[in-house]
Design a protein that fits this description.
Number of strands: 8
Number of domains: 2
Strand order of the largest sheet: 1-3-2
Shape: globular
CATH superfamily of the largest domain: Winged helix-like DNA-binding domain superfamily/Winged helix DNA-binding domain
Structural class: alpha+beta
Largest sheet: 3 strands, antiparallel
Oligomer: single chain
CATH architecture of the largest domain: Orthogonal Bundle
Number of helices: 5
Distance between the termini: 45 Å
């Protein structure tokens, strides 16, 4: 059963046109799967979800499409140390959803951390400003990941 399409174009349509790519069913299906998930999905997990709607889409197409989407900046590709690349949208219909990750090295649980307090925001802004000035570097994004043991594994 094909995915239901909205009458209005999705927020990512402009990005495809701007990068010179066509909007294909597999590309749209992958973005749809990621937009409906709060998890950090692997290519195989995305394949299983997309395959229910589009059985003709192969795993190779999923990998190739994920690389294209990551290069376009539509999705983030993460390595959390579990030997599998994981993916999530870089932004949603309401814009960027910036967060950091806490990764349990025992059970591989990934906790999204986005409820920053004022002191954390100030410290991060000062650190970023200092590093960019020190190295004459222009940042477009950053990623912070903390590795350790979650509450259950301690």
């Amino acid at each position: 059963m094909p995915m239901q399409r909205n009458i209005r174009p999705m927020w990512w349509h402009g990005r495809f046109r701007g990068c010179g790519y066509r909007i294909t069913a597999p590309r749209e299906a992958i973005l749809d799967v990621l937009s409906k998930s709060d998890d950090h999905l692997s290519a195989e997990e995305i394949y299983i979800k997309v395959h229910t709607y589009y059985p003709a889409v192969g795993l190779t197409t999923i990998y190739r499409t994920l690389d294209i989407l990551a290069n376009m900046g539509l999705i983030f590709k993460f390595d959390f140390g579990d030997s599998r690349a994981r993916y999530e949208l870089s932004e949603g219909p309401k814009g960027k959803k910036h967060h950091h990750h806490l990764i349990c090295t025992n059970c591989n649980r990934i906790i999204d951390y986005a409820d920053f307090i004022d002191e954390e925001i100030k410290l991060l802004e000062q650190t970023e400003k200092g590093l960019l000035k020190k190295y004459n570097f222009k940042s477009t994004n950053h990623l912070i990941q903390f590795y350790g043991l979650c509450e259950k594994c301690q």
